[in-house]
Automatic annotation (TrEMBL), chains A, B:
PANTHER family: TRK SYSTEM POTASSIUM UPTAKE PROTEIN, TRK SYSTEM POTASSIUM UPTAKE PROTEIN TRKG-RELATED. Pfam families: TrkH. It comes from Ancylobacter pratisalsi. Belongs to the TrkH potassium transport family. Keywords: Cell inner membrane, Cell membrane, Ion transport, Membrane, Metal-binding, Potassium, Potassium transport, Transmembrane, Transmembrane helix, Transport. This is Trk system potassium uptake protein. The keyword Transport applies.
């Protein structure tokens, strides 16, 4: 049997933090005189109370001895349970969502997806807007710490490749997470502050600047306006967003090293190079297509090309310009870009660049082995040969990712939606991008038009994608619980 | 440099056989008094002449010492070149196709795809109809011999698993192929004759029975009527088609063993079991969906369910009833079924059941390894552990199969077709099924509505799918030609 007490203790601490944070939207509503601050205060009390109870129930256990199986349960339970409590204000505040919709909105925030069921954002009280921003922000830093401290040890989809980056190979999860978290959280706060200042400097109100900075660095993409970044009609803000979305897409451990003076590591990193090369390549294609299709020209075409590729590949999901009518092949290009995603250990979703690199090398090696049956062709990453188990993990992950995408799309389609809606909903949830395509969930629509069972399915898809599939799926294996 | 002489000699023999066979449609046209027998006679002379010249050019070489690289070139060249000559009658006979369309029709025949650009089949001369049937029939037996004799040695997509089935592990290709071919060709002829008799017994004309028997055992699917099997409005014929399409989908080596008295091998075969289980499962789903959707009931619903699942999963592509309006989830189910395909060493296309089994085992093993990092979990097939190289080959194949499907679909979409047309064209060509979906290439339409560049792309897709991707793709590697 799994000892649930350390899990309860940690969930308790996380809930207490979440509850305390609810006082911020309460304060914002008091200051702006909008909304209903009492909702947040009440939610805060409930959340903090449950958190405290859980902590009390589990505190006698040896939390620092958390083992791998407990770590699996903790990870999925964190996102699952925190979303339930983070949903409370969405039900009680003026958004008045059902629990299904509120849970979706909270999960969308904490997984940095940014798909929303709330419309009329421009006229909503500031409290609810800043609450959404905080969910992104917590989700973003949570996923970085998870990806650096936990997933490599859990050997999820080839992430064992990144175990070498830590000197500590022990199975004790918490000490390592705590040590890594410090540097990362510092960088994360620093980048967010820099982003907020830049946005304000470019003309956003202080409130919009703070909320969008939190949505940008977390590559979450919740905006305070229905028109998203397009609301500001400002090339300067779009360029700033491009820069900071890219910042959120790079491995945060590298920032820690750059701050320690080792700048070369950022440039030399295989994944960063591949990611930025793909961004440039796809942006060029999109630029040429816009000019060819007479949609835009010159600086505007280039800006929109880079913005769209970066917003989708970083899986932020901000929208500066509605690209739905650009037609093929731009729409298909954007579809592919969502699959790819950005770098490991960033806040971005998708399959991640390192897996794309390993997939490419594995296929090339396979072809060579067919020609030269007796040759030895190791799969390489960053010039170095990598183990067969990493290759098998990456191939399994890639296959399962595509299969999950297809299954979720098929189920949504079977529930009565058109193919574009079904499959764009599937990938936008799974890759944690946010906006979909098509008449129901396109860039100018939102997810409020979907029935409850689809909303639940997509909430689950966001969780699956954010936790890299296997982390959640192992919980469904009977043998996981048997030991 | 590759020695092309043995390749030329074998291609020459194959062309001579193809040319000689053209006398059959000539004879049929003479007997029926329809069509233009002189077209076939002229095509026969040209084809046989070129074949003889090639044989003369290469005959001095040691054909029996064909090495692996020559085998690769020969395989792709066989289908590519024979399609060009098989296309001649389609240009000159009353079908009067352009070379592009004629090549597509010939490639569609020789790859047992059965997608057609010819309409008004019911009123075409018998010669052109029997010519199409012969292309299927040659393509079908060709692919079985290839899959049993050559692909395992070329280690294509995990096919090395089937090397153990032969006692001869030498790299000499031809002796083994010749030895295997004898038993297989015998079974193939026997099954075709049995199928033709059954069809005639169920009420088809002798001509229709022979043509459809050749299209059934080869899982090709060319019919002599625009309405395909639906033309006959005969449940008996539909049941017969189900039985013989299944016959074409099972591993032909097993028939050889069954004929030698070892019947248990057929029942005990892992791939056969999985394939038949999937057929039953999907047929049940389709049955329930028809009853639920009030489309059909009782025996008719069950017959149509089994027929549709078998025609698509065996990649035959016969049509008994237009299922396009059945809506989700049936249409998506049928889409998946096309991907899966049937057994290795049969005439069917798709990914093949043994790969599905290995994929499933590899994913389960990957999940178990995540839970028990120190456990040993070999991937199993048929209860026996299989090598890491086979698993990596299968995973690479599966990923490349999905990627090729997406790329071809995306290109067709970018050329201006809707998503359903684009992606159904991609999978129906790649899996060698035949009919597509949607307004342009749906079951009641044909491929004549597509522009030339799409037709060429789909011809290439049929070749790629039929030869299991890697066999063709290695030819594009510079290092293949360098040695
Ligand atoms: K996002
Ligand atoms: K077919």
């Amino acid at each position: 049997m799994i000892d649930f007490r350390p899990i309860a203790a940690i969930l308790g601490v996380l809930l207490a933090i979440l509850g305390t944070t609810m006082m911020i939207p309460a304060l914002v509503d008091v200051v702006t005189g909008q909304g209903d601050y009492i909702v947040y205060a009440a939610s805060a009390v409930i959340t903090a109370f449950v958190g405290l109870s859980l902590w009390l129930a589990g505190r006698t256990s040896e939390v620092e001895k958390l083992d791998l199986r407990q770590a699996f349960v903790l990870t999925t339970a964190s996102w699952g349970l925190l979303s339930a409590f983070a949903a409370i204000p969405f039900m009680w505040a003026d958004t008045a969502l059902t629990f299904t919709d509120a849970y979706f909105e909270a999960m969308s925030g904490l997984t940095t997806t940014g798909a929303t069921v709330i419309s009329g954002l421009d006229h909503r009280p500031a409290g609810v807007l800043i609450w959404r921003a905080f969910l992104h922000w917590y989700g973003g830093v949570g996923i970085i710490v998870l990806a650096m401290a936990l997933l490599p040890m859990l050997r999820i989809g080839g992430m064992q490749l990144f175990r070498a980056e830590s000197s500590d190979k022990s199975e004790k999860v918490l000490p390592r997470a705590a040590q890594l978290a410090k540097g990362i959280v510092g960088t994360y706060v620093l980048l967010t502050v820099a982003c907020a200042f830049t946005y304000a400097f470019c003309g956003m109100s202080v409130f919009d600047a703070v909320a969008h900075a939190m949505a940008t660095i977390s590559t979450g993409g919740f905006s305070t306006h229905d028109a998203s970044i397009g609301y500001f009609h400002s090339p300067a803000i779009e360029y700033a967003a491009i820069f900071f979305m890219l910042s959120g897409s790079l491995p945060f451990v590298l920032y820690v090293r750059v701050l320690a003076g080792d700048f070369s590591r950022l440039i030399a990193n295989t994944e960063v190079r591949l990611f930025l090369s793909l961004v440039i390549l796809f942006a060029l294609v999109s630029f040429v297509e816009q000019v060819r299709g007479n949609i835009a020209h010159g600086e505007a075409a280039m800006r929109h090309a880079v913005f769209n590729v970066v917003t989708l590949m970083s899986t932020t999901g901000f929208i500066a310009v509605d690209y739905t009518d650009w037609g093929p092949p731009t729409d298909v290009l954007y579809f592919i870009v969502m699959f790819l995603g950005a770098c490991t250990g960033s806040t971005a979703g998708g399959m991640k660049s390192f897996r794309i690199a390993i997939l490419g090398s594995a296929l090339a090696q396979h072809l060579r082995r067919i020609i030269y049956p007796n040759g030895v062709f190791p799969v390489r990453y960053g010039g170095k040969p990598i183990g067969d188990d990493v290759v098998a993990s990456v191939l399994s992950f890639a296959f399962l990712y595509l299969a999950t995408f297809l299954v979720i799309g098929i189920v949504v389609n079977a529930l009565g939606f058109d193919l574009i809606t079904s499959f764009s909903a599937s990938i936008t949830a799974l890759a944690n991008v946010g906006p979909g395509l098509g008449p129901v969930i396109g860039p100018s629509q939102n997810f409020a038009g979907l029935p409850d069972h689809v909303i639940w399915l997509l909430s689950f898809a966001m969780l699956l994608g954010r936790l890299e599939l296997f982390t959640v799926l192992v919980l469904f294996l009977p043998s996981f619980w048997r030991r």
